Amino acid sequence: MTVDIYWGSGSPFAWSVMLALELKGVPYNSHLLSFSDGDLKTPESLAMNPRGKVPVVRNGDFTLSESNAILAWLEKKQPAPALFGSTAEGTGVIWRAVLEHAAYFQHHTHGISGAVFYKKMDEMRDEVRESAKAVGEEMDRYETALAASEWLVGSAMSAADIVAYPHFELFFRLMARDDVKPEKLGFDSGWAAYPALSAWRSRIQAIPGYDNTYPPHWK
Ligand SMILES: N[C@@H](CCC(=O)N[C@@H](CS)C(=O)NCC(=O)O)C(=O)O
Question: 122 lies in a domain?
Answer without folding.
Answer: yes
